[in-house]
## 1
Amino acid sequence: MRRLLLALLLVTACGSSNQAEPTTPELPEIDLAGFQKVLGDLDRPAVVNVWTSWCLPCRAEAPLLREAHAEFGEEIAFIGIDYDDSQRGARLFLDEFDLPFIHYFDRDGVTIAEYGGIGVPRTYFFATGGQLIKVHNGAIDEQTLALQIDELLNR
Amino acid sequence: MEFTLLWAALTAFAGALLAIRLIKRTVPDRPLDRIVGAAVAGIAVGRVAAVIMQGTNPFTNPGELLIIRGGVDTVWASLAGLATLVWPLRRTPTALDAIAPAALTALAGWHGGCLWRSSCLGTISDLPWAWALPGSDITRHPVEIYAAVLFLAGAWTVRWIKSPVGAAAAMALFWAGLARLATEPVRPSLGAGLWWFYALATVMGLAIAGLLVLMTRQPADKATANPYPPV
């Protein structure tokens, strides 16, 4: 057992330390008015995901969001809001997970608070025009995400 | 574990417990331990597989293994769960037969646990029993309830199978595959879904049960021949 633990420790120590310079450009900052304008200008429903680079459940759900974007990215706008984070941390996160949709940097962490919800991650589902349909607190699972997307597309 | 998932897990456990109490068949030692052990092994292996397939190194990010909500790979989870249940009992297939209805009832409990999680709904339907998400007027199939009913039907059917040895366990595999295969078309998912995996389980369960019946059936001439012919 000790040998196994030692081996695991060695493998862990050999892992990448993520110290490289991020390649993703700096995220544009956004405030509540700017976010409402973004929503209002959309001609389609939107899925807004609030994340931070230091949150484990955000990392766990990121691949699911990438998959959902690949499947529904043309019918639904996907928007990420990085909250309570550093630009560097956010850019490293996006380097790692390759989420190919627009992400904003919410310096004060208040942009999306207007719409309710608690903690990170959070996922908001907006109908065309910006009407809030649903807030999902915590990491979202595939079935819930697929169901809410289907709900947005059939309204 | 997340609170709503915990309730679904407890519902599954209660289902297995109830089935073992109701079905008066000789069960192996610690049947509930075996079922819960299989479920835990399935979740653990399925989560590790999901993390690796999503491109994350589980050694450098071990904390991600704990976020079950991030996804469990169904194929690896099912294989690990089945292996954990079947391997220790491989020499006593009667024990597997005895556990089979309880395992199916546990799966019914897990799917029926959608009521605690408010996640029962599937694709759009205007059938009389369809219902809508809160605040919506779009009615949908209660797909998880369909699955739970199918798992219960399987448990009920399997409990009456007494011979040949192993047939009840094989038919449990058939019902488990069928319950998911039949509900897959009305289940919301990203991508194509895992219909092939459920179809494979359905066919394998039926094939194993059929083979067991064929292997234990005596040839008709031998069975009817009188071993003591009149002199």
Note: Strands of chain A lie at 46-51, 77-83, 102-106, 122-126, 132-137.
## 2
Amino acid sequence: MAEKRLRNSLREHRVRHGLTQEQLATLVGVTRKSVNAVETGRFVPSTVLALELARALGVPVESLFHLDD
Amino acid sequence: MSDVEVMEENRRQILWLLVIGIVSWQGFDLAADSLKLTGGLHALWIAAKTASLTGAITWAVAMIRMSFFRRRMKRRPAVAAALEDEVVQDARLRALVLAFQVTLATLGMLLAVDLLHPLPLQFGVRLTVMIGVSVALVSFLRARKAEENG
């Protein structure tokens, strides 16, 4: 099975909500660098963190993260 | 700057102090011991021992700062949780795995050298500990730096 890559639109949603990385990090309870690591795809978040990010931005998790086909 | 950012910067400084401390403490002390064994210049030996002492003091200062840091973290559980988020834990785990591999490689090299030229046990142990600890710390710090700007 070919390896699939997890893409995300975290940055777009965050900017749409007028939040900085630091503000989103505070809402979710992580560091700013960690939000940056997820946004840039350096780190694939756990289900819990993905759900927390989605909840903080008020969007369904599947609109934040999707698999690259 | 949020509390989490301030504390993360604090942690970064403490970890760098630990790296500088252990490398100069143990590195210069090993150099001084080697100079003694090979009959090197006494002035160089004194310089190496002084640098080693400075490194030991740096290490001790960093450890004291770390204990104050931990005490502050206990009083602020939300900040402590953010500083130990899953990205940080992942970076730490990767750093420890790399340090373990480098430690094994160092031990392998020391054992190979020991076959040709017997080395004092203390030399090998101290060199291995110094390399293992500094690789773990530097690897963690580099991972966090890479996560800073993407």
Note: The interface with chain B takes residues 22, 25-26, 29-34, 36-40, 42-43, 45-46, 49 of chain A (CB under 8 Å).
